[in-house]
Design a protein that fits this description.
The two termini are 76 Å apart. This protein is elongated. The protein is of the alpha+beta class and 1281 residues long. Strands 1, 2, 3, 4, 5 and 6 form a 6-stranded antiparallel β-sheet that branches. A hairpin with a 4-residue loop joins strand 12 and strand 13. Helices cover 40% and strands 11% of the residues.
Length: 1281
């Protein structure tokens, strides 16, 4: 795109659109089937009748786009009995490279004088009446009203159709059709364009010929009115009115002239915040209104609040009917749909799982599920409310308040509710203002008013029944401002100040949220070319460090926001600024950041800070409004052929004059034009700032990426096929990128070693990435749907599959209301006989008791669906779908399940169109392969997310196979605990080894306490291990024991705390049962020890102790969300408690003299007696020693008092854990080593008597002093310590 002097013009084109007499009356096929409507209510094809100039090099004229967007609904016809108010709306044409052109359209009605057009309309009416006389045809449209209902008596239908408000009589009625005049500009000067177009139309249709021809005003706006420089204001003239516009400076917020007062009046503060949050997180935004300008208002208004961030995806605020298939786009978008008579229930959307639906007219918003709260949302809303009150704006309270009354802006500055037949409300002529029509009927029957009407008609004051109605009603709508009303200069400045204030509030929040964002930007070390070529493979922002610096309440929003393309683009622009001119938005943002830091310092505060900068920017707006910097040339007479002035008709303009650029406008290569060229370049996207080679490369990459904007060329069948194929490619590419990202960040350092990337994940980020995977699956399943059923396309497919499977299993008929007719015949195939269940032989122990067997859970789509459907806390289809995805991902079955779901080709064909992603076999297989790669890592995304759901747990106890300890006469019990809580004590029936319980989600299982009451003749019980399986996720945990439960055996314990170990999902169920055996060290003490039994040596114990301490240190250096079970590191196999027990056990003198085992707790109790005696005698002089003795004795005493059923090893475990938690253990060891008890019980080469060995242990334990060790409640249950 070349720089041209025309780049400094206010407007590029003046366009006229309307009815082409030469082509006749053509129905608008792109608007769908409208044959059921009355001919006056149908849309007809419009064309661009003329545009001036023919073309400009810097902005090529797009005839199709301008014609479609200036009259999105096509032509509308009305008679003289119907309302024909003019309308104004703006539109945007977005090019493939992302740059935009702005349009302003003024639509009005003009009388149809061509007899052929009038005759064609009359013929259409006759054909429609004849069609309705056919009962079969009327039956097709019976749902549209009583007039189409065959049961309605013919006289009533005839009266309704011959109503003058609905029927066109060529002999008595005057026919009118819409015409539109447009301005195409490079900047959205909404108010100035609206004022100019309305004045030009009034001048052209005035009763008397204007002083200057219309060409003079058009020529002036095209060639003589310049684009105001940044930070300046300008005045130009049209007809009898001066028009002022101003442009913000380079360090101010970008130009915005839409009415935010109206936006808040329509939606309210709460709804604006919901839409804003959805847009920030790149959800699909669908706007719905009967007014085109309202669609533009909300789309542009919310986008303006995002500054300094910009929307990077599909942006079509007014979506023409011909491009409605783009709603299938599985990408983020902002689109606006215009509706006429139909209501919300008639709108068919592919999927609403990730969609924010905004009904502007009703003032309601439907948001996606799991939408996080914007940081400091309540404080922002309070600040916005204060701004609204300060400017006297009456707004709608609450959110989604469709039932609440619409409130307008004070002094009537809101929108109006009249029907023009073109845009606002857009109801058909047959249904407009029925109450007014009833009053008119009454007035027509009054003789007195009839005489008054005759008089005023003779005078010429009132010419139509509409004027007569306005005179009688006294102009009740006088205080309501219409869309075409021209605001005064004071009103314009006030609106600009209000918009500025609102936008400053949001910018202020971003400034505080990202005040230190630059610290986390990872600057590249290579050249710009290398960085651009490898951009997608590089990490440019330290997200983990940034999130760790944020308040906890902000993480749900921020963790998702920093993953968006919106945020990524800002960071990319920051990096690019080191090589070239900074992005304009980034430059303003960084300038404001600098001011903020100078004012408040580098330190950031999590508290909310109100905006104060709006006062400075307001003064600039007022200054530009009060002091005009530039006054443009006034319109002047042109050399055109004189023509007859026709009141009410827009003339055919002289193209010879308007297509000729004046000589005085030839460009001059001087310093005065440099700011114009620079400002022009700043308007476009960043690729315009590159050199020509880089720019072309950048544009090619942009085109190769996902479909960014719908194009008019895609209306054709070939274009639609190409667009859908791009969607498929986009989905496949995103699937590959997302699964790779999940693998890299979950595998952590292992993935870094393999060269895949850097380890940057946190728990919050993991949850965010999985949520984005759910969104991706919803978009894939929404692509190419035949018919939408429910808000979740994935869940709808699953339900259809489940129905078919259940019918195949049970031979029951399919519910025809549940499935589409196409798939009602897919289920019942040849009935297969039920398979014979495989018999399993339960193994028995030496006493003949049956040992429990662990049968595998079904691996089926429907099995997981039924489990999800039982979750009472989920209320929506979207929630069920996301829960099912999380469950399948945690079970490593997501790829397998989806492959099974898509293997039913008949079902897929009935649900999806041929171009759908799910029916593209090659891409589908690649997609499943990407998902299969996720099986390489472990997720707990279901267990950690649904913390309130009821989970069935199957508990199986495996006692010793020996006769002596295989059963017990006592009453056993267990207590299962996890990271989210415990079950409490659960009684087990005698001789029962299996228990199935249902309990609120315990999370990742950690410990199991098992015991009995030691009653009966043979209470002693030898337990090898316990298995616990989550019956939903299929996670199985092994709790090794290998110890006796009972008095007088082993260490005398009647209850033991077992630490769980997760069992790999690949382990066979039979292997779980047969391979678990009693650990050698845990054998019953009554069994004689063999002399050849090997003992651990000092270096081995030192290595074990060092490893256990090192594992705990690593645990605390991990992000909190990534840490595993500290209980396992303390009390599990080779945990710190086990290693310290080996330290104390090494070197016992009595181990050679006695066959019975001496426990560490025996030594600690003797030391307790010794220390207590010294304290009682008062012989301890050192304060440090006395404190150590007292704390040691206190812990021992309280453990003995509170743990009557816990054995000696259990008490030592408690002692060690409490000593580590309170950091007393490393203080006690030196004083224990000095005691006489140690000299009596230990050999000289033991850890307790050898100073170097003891110092080694103390030094290791001292390294844990910096960490806060929190013990699970299950470890200290029943103890008040």
């Amino acid at each position: 795109m070349t720089t041209s002097p025309g780049g400094s013009r206010f407007a590029d084109y003046f366009v006229i659109c309307g009815l082409d007499i030469s082509s006749g009356l053509e129905p608008d096929q792109l608007s769908g089937d409208n044959l059921h409507c009355l001919p006056l209510d149908r849309p007809y094809k419009s064309k661009v009748l003329a545009h001036f100039p023919e073309n400009v090099s810097w902005n090529p004229f797009d005839k199709d786009a301008v014609g479609m967007l200036s009259l999105p609904k096509g032509l509308t016809f009305r008679t003289h009995n119907q309302k024909r108010e003019p309308r104004f709306h703006t539109f945007i044409i977005t090019r493939e490279d992302g740059s935009r052109t702005f349009g302003a359209a003024y639509t009005f009605f003009e009388e149809v004088t061509n007899r052929q057009i009038c005759a064609a309309m009359k013929t259409l009416h006759s054909m429609h009446l004849a069609e309705l006389s056919n009962d079969q045809s009327r039956a097709l449209y019976s749902h549209l009203g009583s007039v189409y209902d065959p049961s309605t008596p013919r006289p009533l239908r005839k009266n309704h159709l011959e109503d003058p408000e609905k029927f066109y009589n060529i002999d008595s009625d005057t026919l009118y059709v819409t015409k539109c005049i447009c301005l195409i500009t490079q900047f959205p000067f909404v108010t100035a364009c609206k004022t100019f177009l309305s004045l030009v139309q009034k001048a052209a249709s005035a009763k008397h010929s204007p002083v200057l021809p219309v060409e003079s005003y058009v020529f002036n706006i095209l060639y003589e009115v310049p684009l105001p420089p940044p930070g300046r204001s300008m005045k130009f003239t049209c007809w009898d009115r001066s028009i002022v516009c101003q442009r913000p400076g380079l360090n101010e917020l970008p130009l915005f002239e839409y009415s935010m007062q109206e936006m808040f009046s329509l939606l309210g503060v709460e709804n604006v915040m919901l839409i804003f949050t959805s847009m920030q997180l790149e959800n699909q935004i669908l706007l719905y209104s009967s007014d085109y300008q309202r669609l533009m208002l909300v789309a542009e208004g919310i986008s303006a609040l995002m500054f300094p961030f910009t929307w990077q995806h599909v942006y079509v605020p007014i979506l023409p009917a011909s491009l409605l298939h783009f709603l299938d786009a599985p990408v983020p978008f902002i689109m606006g749909i215009h509706h006429g008579n139909q209501d919300r229930s008639q709108l068919q959307l592919p999927s609403e799982a990730n969609m924010c639906f905004v009904d502007i007219d009703e003032g309601s918003v439907e948001i996606p599920e799991e939408l996080p709260v914007f940081p400091h949302k309540q404080e922002i809303m309070e600040e916005l409310t204060a701004v609204l009150k300060r400017y006297g704006v009456v707004y709608k309270c609450g959110s989604n308040g469709g039932k609440k009354l619409f409130q307008k802006v004070k002094e009537g500055s809101g929108s109006q509710d009249e029907d023009s037949g073109m845009s606002s409300n857009d109801e058909s002529a047959s249904t407009s203002v029925p109450s007014i029509l009833n009053k008119m009927e009454i007035l027509k029957q009054s003789d007195a008013l009839a005489r008054i009407r005759a008089i005023v008609n003779k005078v010429g004051v009132i010419t139509t029944s509409e004027d007569f109605h306005d005179a009688v009603e006294g102009k009740k709508r006088k205080g309501v401002k219409k869309a075409t009303d021209i605001p005064s200069e004071d009103e314009t400045v006030k609106e600009l100040k209000f918009c500025n204030n609102i936008r400053e509030v949001f910018l202020n929040r971003f400034l505080h949220m990202f005040a230190c964002y630059e610290e986390f930007v990872i600057q590249p070390t290579q050249s710009m070319d290398m960085w651009i070529s490898s951009r997608e493979l590089m990490q440019n922002y330290d997200k983990a460090a940034f999130l760790s610096d944020q308040p906890e309440t902000h993480l749900p929003f921020l963790s998702r926001f920093i993953e968006t393309q919106i945020f990524t683009t800002l960071i990319d622009n920051k990096i690019m600024s080191q090589w070239e001119e900074p992005d304009p938005y980034l430059r303003v943002f960084e300038t404001r950041l600098k001011v903020l830091k100078e004012k408040m310092g580098e330190a950031r505060t999590p508290t909310y800070c109100s905006c104060t900068s709006y006062m400075e920017t307001e003064s600039l707006i007022e200054k530009r409004g009060a002091h005009i910097d530039h006054i443009s040339l006034v319109p002047h007479d042109l050399e055109i052929q004189p023509r007859l002035h026709r009141p009410g008709f827009f003339p055919d303009l002289d193209g010879n004059v308007l297509n000729k650029q004046p000589a005085v406008q030839r460009p001059k290569r001087g310093d005065g034009a440099k700011w114009r060229r620079k400002d022009r370049s700043l308007q476009h996207s960043e690729h315009l700032q590159l050199n020509s080679d880089q720019r072309e490369k950048y544009m090619q990459e942009a085109r190769a990426k996902s479909v960014r904007q719908p194009k008019i060329s895609e209306m054709t069948q070939q274009g639609m096929v190409a667009a859908n194929w791009k969607f498929v490619e986009t989905l496949l590419k995103e699937s590959k990128t997302k699964t790779k990202r999940m693998l890299v960040e979950k595998m952590g350092q292992e993935a870094v070693d393999l060269g895949h990337g850097e380890m940057t994940i946190t728990g919050v980020e993991e949850n965010t990435i999985i949520a984005s995977l759910c969104d991706l699956l919803e978009r894939i399943w929404s692509h190419g749907l035949q018919t939408k059923k429910g808000k979740s396309a994935l869940w709808s497919h699953l339900l259809s599959y489940q129905e078919i499977e259940e019918c195949n299993d049970t031979s029951k008929p399919i519910d025809p209301n549940f499935l589409t007719p196409d798939i009602s015949t897919l289920a019942l195939e040849a009935e297969t006989p039920p398979s014979t269940p495989t018999k399993r032989h339960k193994r028995k122990n030496s006493r003949g008791l049956e040992v429990p067997t662990l049968s595998p859970l079904p691996v089926a789509v429907t099995f997981d669906m039924r489990n999800v459907q039982k979750m009472s806390e989920i209320k929506t289809d979207v929630g069920y779908a996301r829960a099912w995805v999380r469950l399948a991902l945690e079970k490593k079955l997501l790829s397998k399940h989806l492959k099974e779901l898509m293997s039913d080709t008949d079902l897929c064909r009935s649900l999806y169109k041929r171009y759908a992603f799910l029916r593209c076999e090659d891409e589908r297989e690649q997609f499943l392969c990407h998902l299969l790669s996720l099986n390489a890592v472990d997720y707990s995304c279901f267990t950690n997310t649904f913390t309130q759901t009821k989970i069935p747990y199957r508990i199986m106890i495996f006692p010793s196979r020996k006769l002596q300890g295989s059963s017990t006469s006592a009453n056993p019990w267990i207590c299962l605990a996890g990271q989210l809580g415990d079950t409490g004590v659960l009684q087990i029936g005698k001789h029962s080894l299996e228990l199935l319980i249902e309990h609120k989600n315990l999370g990742i299982l950690t410990t199991l306490r098992i015991g009995h009451d030691n009653s009966g003749m043979m209470p002693r019980w030898m337990v090898e291990h316990v298995l616990v399986r989550n019956e939903i996720t299929a996670h199985t945990y092994k709790f090794p024991c290998g110890r006796w439960l009972g008095r007088g055996v082993d260490d005398g314990s009647t209850e033991r705390l077992l630490v769980g170990e997760p069992v790999p999902h690949t382990t066979d169920s039979d292997d779980l049962v047969t391979t678990c055996s009693t650990p050698p060290k845990s054998r019953s003490p009554i069994m004689p020890r063999k002399a050849s039994e090997s003992k651990l040596q000092i270096p081995v114990i030192q290595q074990m102790l060092g490893d256990s301490v090192n594992n705990i240190v690593k645990h605390f250096y991990k992000p909190e969300k990534e840490r595993g079970s500290l209980t396992f590191l303390l009390c599990g196999e080779l945990g710190l408690v086990s290693c310290l027990d080996s330290v104390f056990q090494f070197g016992f003198k009595s181990s050679r003299l006695f066959r019975n085992r001496l426990y560490t707790w025996d030594y600690l109790e003797k030391s307790h007696i010794h220390f207590a005696g010294l304290l009682h005698e008062g012989s301890v002089k050192s304060e440090l020693k006395r404190a150590a003795y007292m704390s040691f004795c206190s812990v021992i005493t309280r453990i003995n008092d509170a743990s009557q059923n816990v054995g000696k090893d259990g008490k030592f475990q408690l002692f060690t854990c409490l000593g580590l938690r309170d950091h007393f253990l490393e203080r006690w060891l030196p004083f224990l080593a000095e005691s006489s008890v140690t000299l009596t019980m230990y050999e000289e080469n033991s850890f307790m008597r050898e100073p170097s060995l003891l110092n080694f242990v103390v030094h290791l334990l001292d390294s844990l002093r910096d960490f806060k060790i929190n013990l699970e409640a299950s470890l200290v249950k029943g103890l008040d310590l």
